[in-house]
Amino acid sequence: MLVKTLENSAQDNPSQEFPSDCYQQKFHVHYEYPVYFTRDLFNEDNDLLASTIDGKNEARCHRLKIFIDSGVIEAIPEIQDRITKYVSARPDCLKIAGKIEIVPGGERSKNSWDLARRIMGEIAKERLDRQSFVVAVGGGSVLDIVGFAASLVHRGLRLIRIPTTVLAQNDAGIGVKNGIDEQGMKNFAGTFSPPFAVLVDYHFLQTLAPKYWTGGIAEAFKVAIIKDKDFFGFLCANAQDLKNRDDRAIEYVVKRCAELHLDHIRTSGDPFEFGSARPLDFGHWSAHKLEILSDYELGHGQAVSIGIAIDSVYASMTGLLNDSDCMAILDALEKTGLPVWHDILEMRNKEGKLHLIKGIDEFQEHLGGRLCITLPDGIGKKIEVHEMDPVLLEKAVSILSLRKKE
Ligand SMILES: NC(=O)c1ccc[n+]([C@@H]2O[C@H](COP(=O)([O-])OP(=O)(O)OC[C@H]3O[C@@H](n4cnc5c(N)ncnc54)[C@H](O)[C@@H]3O)[C@@H](O)[C@H]2O)c1
Ligand SMILES: [Zn+2]
Questions:
Q1: Model confidence pLDDT, tens digit, residues 103-144
Q2: Quick one: DSSP state of residue 202?
Q3: Nearest protein Cα to ligand 1, atom 5
Q4: What's 172's DSSP letter?
Q5: CA angle in degrees (0–180, nearest 5) for 252-68-114
Q6: Ligand 1: residues whose CB is within 6 Å?
Q7: Torsion angle of alpha carbons 299, 305, 307, 309, nearest 10°?
Q8: Contact status, residue 317 vs residue 392, Cβ threshold 8 Å
Q9: Which of 33, 104, 132, 366 is in Cβ range 3.0-4.6 Å of 128 for a Cys bridge?
Q10: Is 268 helix (H, G, I), strand (E, B) or coil?
């Protein structure tokens, strides 16, 4: 078959004068968005939000539809007034479209098409167009559902994410994905849709519940173990400070972890995950299953911590990780206040198999293609494996059961 590639940069092939049987369409889309780190974003003197929105010098007043996580409103009741004041102080540049909307926070809200439709309805009511801004302020769940809705309206509005949890600041809020849980599966429906900008304000972390403070640190362990030995060393050395909510330590963790995630998206050659490999999902095949099995009692970060523990013990049993590195991982997770065990690990189906193991099939289905699980290959390096031995997984679970807390 004659194939003619249509590509802007390539010169037409003059020898191909007869009609081709296929036009191979080819073009590249350039994506670019800033991730800023700041403190006290809505302080009237902090110009970051306004200058980001007006960054393209479009010389007009920008309409913003703002959605805020209910957990943020509870923790910082004055935030709505502060945002209103901030915007009112810049009438030539910013205007709030309608009223500020409150979106229920937490994983359960991500479980609802109704909520995604309601968000689209609020956007429709204000007749936002593709040049208007949706501003999402919240944890990973709210960012995911608001981002999902915003990416569907007119095939994508400009989205500014303002992540307010550790996990959202170092992972969920800075990447190119969003989604909702559907059909009993995490992130079953979603889109790849890079944001217009991300504004990380460390001040939000002060009001976080302990579960969400430490939960985000699990993602830092995840990326450090497979990509950055020095960062893993930092996490181990500062585990106690991190547990004690040391600002300096958490800010370093957020920034370094965000940088590693951004590096991966930029340099992996597969930002929209067309392939089957998903290194940043180390520890996640079981984490997603555990979240569902626990009916979301386990937070994402806690589930990831247990997932890291399972895969690290498994990696040590297959000779990929030496025992002392494996112990260092388990000890550091626990010292940070993260779990490496939950009783649902022992739940079995009628055939007596661990429920957990079903997570491997579901993970493969979500990724598509061949099973591809990332394991540590020593600290700071990774390897992809294409099968997991259920007998070894049973053993890994029984090894971790020795760390059960009474
Ligand atoms: N899109 C992605 O690339 C990506 C990546 C990783 C994780 N995620 C998703 O992120 C979600 C988890 O996000 P999360 O860990 O941020 O939890 P979360 O969004 O569920 O929020 C946890 C709780 O903290 C509250 N909260 C948020 N900010 C607060 C603040 N500053 N002060 C007090 N309370 C606050 C929320 O209301 C909620 O009750 C999961 O659904 C996960 O799948 C998405
Ligand atoms: Zn995660």
A1: 999 988 898 899 999 999 999 999 999 989 999 999 999 999
A2: G
A3: 172
A4: I
A5: 120
A6: 69-72, 75, 105-107, 110, 138-142, 144, 164-165, 167-168, 171-172, 175, 177-178, 186-187, 204, 207-208, 212, 215, 300-301
A7: -150
A8: yes
A9: 132
A10: coil
